[in-house]
Design a protein that fits this description.
425 residues; alpha/beta; Rossmann fold; 3 domains; four-stranded antiparallel β-sheet; 32% helix
């Protein structure tokens, strides 16, 4: 049956429509919705299985998804409750799936390589890899709001909990590159820096287990630069040793987006690149990209037409007097850290963080002709180098948009490093 929270109102259903509803708003039940251990398959996971199947159909990568995906497709397209709510003249099956491929960033038709996208966030790795001809054949992301942003832009609903054996069972064999911006809060100066004592830190070992089972040609990992120095370097040494024990050759480097990607954001991250020497014998030819001159400024990322009052500070707001005293130079990015305001004299944006949406204290500020305001979520995406067509669906809360942008990677930098990887594989 269909469990619906739509109060009986008619809806035009496509898979994208259903997938962008709030978690639990729609749910289908029958025997096909059970895992092998009789645990229940959530509707988000059902959508993940079907969309991954549709995007890999006709290839060997579809094998892990095929059986369950066909069961769900049969369930959905033969469900009378859904049919009654469809407002269209076309056959249900055609209509239901029409938007899965009609997305801003579809997969390339003739891919040059394949990859999986773990801890995918909103797909910063994916857009970079697709720009170079790569096809994503599996994605996973824990945050439900980020899943929906990813789904809206790529047509794939990411799977959820990557620590689950059921989730791991859907990862296809024989892909080329494993990408993972594994959670950085455990090592970041913005967090408590508990490292492997934090559950998020131990997620690296789930990545290692997938590497052990699937043996990709290359591995591309990203994290905060403090990973190098956490616990006097012991944490990073554990990671490096683990990868080497799996038989991989490891390269690593801390790189700043403003120095290596022509993006005006002061964002330092460590990049860890690994090759299986048996599959990539020329691994020693790998090198990280060279620095390049920063020619873009904040003016390339700021929208000076923003007028929505929700982004502007007024004298009715708390701390407004402090802001007026501290912010004096127009068209300069400032960082408000609750207790003080810091001017970024280098004319670049300070590091965007995941907690930008928690009360507005950490969102970079700018003084324009219209007043003092915080950056918009779209401007934050600009400072991460996302394409102009990338968007947040309307179901996403503003606070979550900031979090998703701050958690993401700098797309052009990922792309430059990836280009070096695929030249060898």
């Amino acid at each position: 049956m269909v469990k619906s929270a739509n109060n009986g109102k008619n809806n035009i259903f496509t898979l994208l429509d259903l997938g962008l509803k709030k978690t639990g708003e729609y749910q289908l039940y029958d025997e096909s919705c059970l895992n092998k251990d009789n645990s229940f398959i959530k509707f988000d996971t059902q959508v993940a299985i079907v969309t991954h199947y549709l995007h890999t159909q006709g290839t060997s990568f579809a094998k892990p998804y095929a059986e369950k995906a066909n069961e769900f497709i049969d369930l959905w397209t033969n469900n009378e409750s859904l049919k009654e709510n469809i407002v269209c003249e076309s056959p249900l099956q055609t209509y239901l799936f029409k938007d899965v491929f009609n997305v801003p960033f579809p997969s390339p038709e003739n891919p040059k390589f394949t990859f999986i996208d773990l801890f995918a966030g909103i797909g910063g790795f994916r857009v970079a890899m697709q720009n170079l001809g790569g096809k994503c054949i599996f994605s996973s992301e824990w945050d439900s709001a980020a899943q929906r942003t990813y789904f809206a832009n790529y047509g794939d609903m990411p799977f959820g909990d990557i620590t689950s054996e059921e989730t791991k069972s859907y990862i296809p064999d024989n892909f080329d590159v494993l990408c993972a911006g594994f959670p950085c809060q455990a090592f970041s100066i913005a967090g408590y820096r508990k490292g492997f004592d934090d559950t998020r830190g131990t997620l690296f070992f789930d990545v290692a287990e997938i590497i052990r089972r699937k043996r990709p040609k290359a591995v591309f990992l990203e994290n905060v630069k403090n990973l190098c120095t956490h616990d006097n370097g012991k944490t990073f040494q554990i990671i490096k040793n683990t990868l080497e024990e799996l038989g991989y050759v490891v390269f690593f480097k801390v790189m700043n987006a403003m120095e290596y990607a022509n993006i005006p954001q002061n964002r330092e991250r460590i990049f860890i690149i690994c090759f299986d020497p048996k599959q990539v014998p020329n691994y020693n030819e790998f090198s990280f990209p060279e620095k390049e001159i920063l020619t873009k400024t904040i003016h390339d990322c700021i929208d000076y037409n923003v007028s929505a009052t929700e982004y502007f500070y007024t004298n009715k707001m708390k701390h407004f007097d402090e802001l007026v005293e501290s912010i004096t130079s127009k068209d300069t990015i400032y960082q408000w850290r609750r207790q003080y305001v810091r001017e970024n004299k280098s004319n670049v944006c300070p590091t965007l963080t995941a907690n930008m949406g928690t009360g507005g204290h950490n969102v970079p500020l700018i003084l324009t002709d219209k007043g003092i305001r915080k950056l918009t979520p779209k401007e934050c995406l600009n400072f991460q180098g996302f394409p102009e067509d990338y968007y947040f669906p309307s179901v996403i809360a503003k606070s979550s948009m900031y979090k998703q942008a701050g958690n993401s990677v700098v797309v052009p930098l990922i792309q430059r490093v990836c280009k070096q990887i695929i030249s060898l594989i």
